[in-house]
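Quick one:
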Amino acid sequence: MALEDPTGITVEINGQEVTLRSFADICSALEGLTFAQLTIAIGDIIAGAGIELTAPSLSGLIQCISTALNIVDHG
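Output:
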């Protein structure tokens, strides 16, 4: 629902303020990030959307997105 709002979700991703209004915007904003940057960005997007997730759910979401975007966890 937050993406459907005309103002979208504005978050800082990798030091840059980004307004997200669609899932395509989210994918574009996340491409090229490191796994650590991705983890922070997803947390900020979730918080910006007003969604509360348990740690296991957030971890699963991050793993799913990192796999989809081919972002490897080197940690």
